[in-house]
Structure formats: C-alpha cells, structure tokens
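=== Structure Prediction Worksheet ===
Name of assembly: unnamed complex
Input type: mixed (protein and possibly other molecules)
Chain count: two
Listed entries:
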Amino acid sequence: MSERIIYLDNQATTACDPRVLEAMWPWFAEKPGNPHSADHAAGRAAADAVELARAQVAALIGADAAEIIFTSGATEANNLAIKGVARFAGPAARRRVVTAATEHKCVLESVADLGAEGFEPIVLGVDRDGALPVARLRAALDLPTLLVSVMAANNETGFLQDIAALAAAAHAGGAVFHTDIAQAAGKVKVDVRAMGVDAASISAHKFYGPKGIGALYIRRRPRLRLAPLFSGGGQERGLRSGTLPTPLIVGFGEACRIAVAGMQAEQARIANLRARLLDGLRARIPGLVVNGSLDNRLAGNLSLRFPGLHATQLIATCPTLAISTGSACTSAEIAPSHVLTAIGLTASEAAATLRIGIGRFTSPADIENAVHMIAGAHASLLATAEV
Amino acid sequence: MHTAKSVIYLDSAATEKLRPEARAAVLAALECDGNPSSIHGPGRAARKLLEQSRAAVAASVGAAPAELVFCSGGTEANAMAIAGLSAGRRVVIGATEHDAVRAAAPGAVILPVGSDGVVRLEALEAALRSQAPALVCLMLANNETGVLHPVAEAASICRAHGALLHVDAVQAAGRIAVDIGALGADSLTLSGHKHGGPKGVGALVLAPGLHLPALIAGGGQERGRRGGTPALPAIAGFAAVAELKSPAGLAALRDRVEQAAIQCGAIVCGATAPRLHNITSLALPGVKAETQVIALDLAGIAVSAGAACSSGKVTESHVLAAMGLGPLAGCAIRVSLPWSATEDDADAFIAAYAAMAGRLTRTLSAA
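=== Predicted Assembly ===
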C-alpha cells in the first residue's frame, strides 16, 4: 500500500484548489503593487484585483462588496465583530453579550475578554444535537442585550444552527446579531440578507482558499458601527489597517467563485461519500455512535464515537489517515472538547470521539481505504485490550 | 525599445516584488495541506515548517524562536506591542513614526526630530525625567526618508529611566543589520513584504521574559499571544528572505539618482543624517508632490508621494513637516529602490525626472 496520506480533516484546513493557486500565482510572481499606492499603475492594478475579489466574496454570501472588510482570517474577524461592536457602543450602552457554549474558542475568548471591559458575558447551553433553542435565547434577552454571536456551522459536529430564527429573536430584543460562518461558507448556501444577520466572519482556508486571509461582513443598511481592533494607515475604511495581501485576497476571491459555481453538485457528492463511510463503518463496528443528529449537518462532517476506545489510539494506529479528535486549535490539549461536553457527552465519551471532515479532493477510493483502516485499527485495538 | 509597457518600480518602501527565494518557499508551503495545530501527519509537517520558519526569522534578529509571535503584518505587530505593553505606562513616540504607531498611541507624548529627521535624544531624556513608567516607540529607519534613528542610544536612556522601548524595524530589516539585543529593544516589529517577502505576514519579537496579552484572542496559537490559524505560505516566504540583505550596490544607484535630482533643483530631505541606502526623499520646490508622481507614472515610473497607506489621499507628510520643511513638505516624492533595481532603472528614472522637472519648473517660472 502506498504512503499517500488520506486527508479527512477538512474542517481543520483544506488544500488549496489548483485553480486558486493558478489565480494567485501571477500576484506572487511578477506583480509588486501595494494596492494602496493609488498614485501609480502597479498599485492601481493591485487595487483592481482586490476589488474584484471583494465582489466575489460578497457574491458568495449575498452581500454587497462595500460590506466586506478583509482580515487575516476568521479569528481576527470574530474578534473584530465582537470587541468592535462592544467598544464602539461604549460604557453607556447595554452590557450583556450572549453566545453559545459550542462556539469556536476565539468567540468564547473574545466574549470573555469583554467581561474584563465591564460587559456581562452570557454563555448559553445547547441541546444534545448542538442546537441553541430560540426560547433559551429569548429568555437571555429579557435583560437588555447588546450583541448575540452564534456560529452557523459547528467546527466539530458540523451542526447547522437556525441562524435566521436566532437573528430574528436577537433583533426583537434590540440586540446586534453576529455569526461565525467560517465552517458554513462555501459548503452550504449562506445568504446574509435571508438570515438577517448584522455581521458574519469568514475564512478562506476552510474552503480551498489560502491561509492568512478572511473577511468580516458588516451590514450597511441599517449600518452596523464598530471600532477597529487596531489602527494605522486607515485601510478598509479605517476598520482594518495594514497593507492588504493582494495574492491571498485574489486566491480567496477565486475560492468563492468556485464555491458559488459548484456548491450543489459538490455537496451532493460529499454527502454520498459520507453515507458510504458511515455505512461501511457501521457494518464493521458494532456500537458505533454518531454524535448529534445527521440532519442539519454539514455534508462532509462526521463526529463518531467508538465505545471502549481512546480516539487518540485510533489515530496513532492509522498513520496514513489524517483525522482528528476535534478542533485543530486544541488538538494537543488533554481536556475534553468543550463542544462535545456542551452537547452532553461525558469525558470518556468525548475521548472516544473522532472528527472526520470529507472534502472536495476526497475520492471514493479514499473512503473505502479509510473504512478499512479505521475498522481494522478498531478491531486490533479491541483485541489487544481484551488480551 | 520595449514594445510592451513595463513599469519601472521604484516604490520598495511601499512594497517589494517577491524575491525568487520567497516565491519558491510560498509555492512549497501552498502544497503543505495541514493545519499546524493538527496532530496527524500533515499537521505535523505544517508545524515543522512553521517552527523552522519561526527559528529562521528569530535568528535573523538575534532572538530565540519562543520570543517571536507571527501575525498579519507590521501594523498589527505595532498595535499588539503598544496595546500589550502600555498598560499603566505613558506612551512616548517619535514625531516621524509610521501611522500604525501614531494611531495606536493617540495620546502619546511626541518627541521632536531635528531638521535632518533624527530624533532628539535630549527630548527623550527630558520626557522620561519624571521616572513615571513609560513605553517609548521609536522606528529604526523612517519609511519616507530612510533616516536612521539612534535606537541603541535611546535604549540606554530608556533603561536608565525604567522605560520600555518598542522598535518598528519594518523598513530597516533586510537593509541593515537588526539585532534586538544589540539595539536594547524590548520589542521589535518586522514585516514580510517590505523586503522581498510576501504580504500578509509580520512578526512581533519580544525581549526574553517579556509577556504580553493577545490583541486577537483565539485558539491558543502562538503560545496564546495571537489566535488564528497561522498563514503558513506567507510565513514560509517571510522566513526565506529573513537572512537576505538588500544589495549593497543600491547605495551607488541611490547616490546617482540624488545627484541627478539635485542638478534639476531638488533638495534631498534628511541628506545629512545616517540613512538606509535604498530610499531618498526628493523635494522639488514649488511643484506639488502629486503632480510629480502623476508625471512620472505617465512616463512608466512608479514612485510615491510619501507613505502608501494614505490610500490615494495626498496630504502633507507628517514626517517632512516634523523636519520643519514647511511648504517643501508638500513637494517631496519618495524614491525607494527594490532589491531588483538595476542601472537601467536608475537611468530611466533620471531621464524621466529631468524631463519632468524641466517642464514643471519652467511652467512655474513662466507663471
């Protein structure tokens, strides 16, 4: 068997699409311009490329180009949205900032940081699928609330929240609504107007674009006001200073264009691969459990529990299979995943969980081999355990 | 004559063309599919590349790898340093600092510079005399004039008064030797794209044992000092140019450009100060900088009227105003030679500049 790695960790990061590489390449190769050097031709060419990409990003999520601010990624965009809204509102404003227990660490930490600035962080629990019940949000909104932040798709369980309903509830309570769409964008249809959100964070490398670039959607009508995380040359309308990385932005735009063009067919193909993977594993591994519901879930995601085993043992037994126990950021941590704990798993259940992320470059043969490897590793680990 | 219109790019202080070494490293890293925080094979390969890159960039400024925090660029690094180190301290900055520093420290005490653009150390001494805790921000090389500040001397004054010193070395790195220990700085800002590396990456380097809170909170990356999946291709490209130096031959080209401009009536801003060898600020009395830049652009030469950041709005340079240049401050263009600049580029600039100056100053005397 070849040493080729089967990559099934597409929620941690994705390989750049070859078309993205091709689009970026001229900008890495011979074009030097700083897009802010409007004085000369090289600068203007870079500025034009950035604006085309901005329109492509906007088109992916149903926004206007003028509503897109480029950042270094979704982590920065989440920090900017949450801290920016709170800091702009100032000390006389509402104090309460509400989020859900299954959010990405950068959202939870941003909200917690606001606690030190005099705001009141509220972290709401979710049900066993990962859903934040609208009634629970409404109850939290009984006290005047400044901001609600809930992610569209979870990075560990793939669970898709009912963002439109949550945003409507937030607005009914007079709160601003922000959503982290890092895992959803490019994979499910995201329309910021249909969802009615005020701000949304997006990352290129989660859907076949380059690392190091992302964006924050900021609603214009009515206009959402926020303070920058840092200032300087005043780029991005003063909300995000720093020279824009033209090649990365061009790649981000191309990734969005590809996603818009092929989303439906791609998701159907990926859903089919997931069904084959799950069927194959269920046939060979009795007692296998899917964490969360298979409905309302990203097509490529599986969060699987292997009773009686440590997921890290499974990973170690399959060195040519790239899978994870959960969020990459915290992969090295010993503590159980906060997401799995929040949906009601015990520490030992969380430790028995693998996250699988199927993506654009996963082939049917990859799925067959993965079933073979995981089931084989499971059987041999159980046999060793029983001896 | 070339039939294809090729731009002669002399705006390296805004950004530089990627060096071939950086291009190769970026391409290789784009093939590296993993997230450096993942524990599987592709993740470990990405982590290895990240840590090798960290070691290379840190070594280029005499730091240990653990003391280097990767971020999105010079602006973020400056903001991170000032936000993180200014708690409970007065902030004192040089008058010619980059906008990233000026904006991060809106209430700062401003240290004047002399007519040569060099910060006045006696003013620093006076500003710190009260012994109240302070953070001093001083750039190593100015982005509009190339003027070098006496950072090591400033560091001694800071140390004597218990102040911290943050140094923006964005323009200096890759052009002169930069060593955080020799400079005596507590923190140091670097940017990838100002000397042949990619845009979208920079670093904050910290003196041993200095801690600071994250400006961008997140998944615990960069030892909790900067959240977010690291921009691996840009980081690898940055590392590939970290040890490369701007060609020494640029000094001779810069001198030729200056001599020719002086012949046309130009004044070199900061001429008597120690300067970087690739930047010159040329003021042509009576001719607006914007007019000069547009004329040169039409002649196929890319230069700027000061910092690029101001997004097309041509306002009087705060750097030249601080040097007391008065109306001349609105009449200066910045010529900055990239690593790839050639004799031909300098010749083309000199010819275009002479034609432009002849035409525009004639108009002026006729008026």
